[in-house]
């Protein structure tokens, strides 16, 4: 499994380098451009993966590719816990502040866990 995770990180590094180049104004980054970006952060530049990515995005609009990717991700189950249930406030409104506090605590815990997903983008 670890080998598969390493493989995915390498692929994502190439995709990230491509997106950085596009965000930097280069609408059609070359292999050399991607290698330069990856090298600037000390990441390995895998020629095969770079060529594969460039062949797959050739002639396509990046915004359309991102939109298509979002549609695909929307159908992927997120997994994990269920939704947070919030009780309806009582007539006096006493239950609402307690429910909001619990909701805020839950949100803060989630934000802390998202800081480090166990790997760096440029390992």
From TrEMBL:
CDD domains named in the record: Ribosomal_P2 (cd05833)
Keyword Ribosomal protein: yes
Residue ranges, compositional bias (Basic and acidic residues): 99-110
Listed GO CC annotations: cytosolic large ribosomal subunit
Gene3D superfamilies listed in its UniProt record: 1.10.10.1410
Keywords recorded for this protein, A-Z: Ribonucleoprotein, Ribosomal protein
GO biological process: cytoplasmic translational elongation
Keyword Ribonucleoprotein attributed: yes
Spans annotated as Disordered: 89-123
Pfam families per the UniProt record, alphabetical: Ribosomal_60s
An MF annotation (GO) of this entry: structural constituent of ribosome
Subunit structure: P1 and P2 exist as dimers at the large ribosomal subunit.
Family affiliation: Belongs to the eukaryotic ribosomal protein P1/P2 family.
Known function: Plays an important role in the elongation step of protein synthesis.
Name this protein carries in UniProt: 60S acidic ribosomal protein P2
Organism from which the protein derives: Anisodus acutangulus
